[in-house]
Write a structure and sequence with these properties.
The protein is 33% helix and 22% strand. The protein is an alpha+beta fold. It has a single domain, classed as Hypothetical Cytosolic Protein, Chain: A. Strands 4-3-5 form a 3-stranded antiparallel sheet. A two-stranded antiparallel sheet has the order 1-2. 23% of the residues are buried.
Length: 97
């Protein structure tokens, strides 16, 4: 008997494949808003990140969000993402590995 299918996604920071639900989804709403969608319900194109500081810093350094969204992401959105990401890490220290 087969088990239930678990979707996998690739982290834009480190490139590892994991379960979709082990990562955090980031949604870009053009032109100037980016949302950390931890409930996976926000409409729009999403990119996935491991809940680790290193993955976020690596994704920002490599400009991975530009490639994931296929458009230029303003610098203000990076600051929004950093604030939301670090706040979520504080709330959920179990995922901070």
């Amino acid at each position: 008997m087969k088990g239930k299918h678990i979707p996998e996604r690739t982290c834009i920071g480190c490139g590892t494949k994991q379960s979709k639900y082990a990562m955090w989804r980031i949604v870009f709403h053009a032109p100037d808003r980016i949302v950390l969608d931890r409930k996976y319900r926000e409409p729009g194109r999403g990119a996935y990140l491991c809940p680790k500081r290193d993955c976020l810093e690596n994704a920002l350094k490599r400009r991975a969000l530009h490639r994931a969204y296929r458009t230029q992401v303003p610098a203000a959105c990076y600051e929004q993402l950093k604030e939301a990401f670090y706040e979520a890490l504080k709330e959920n220290t179990v995922d901070a590995r």
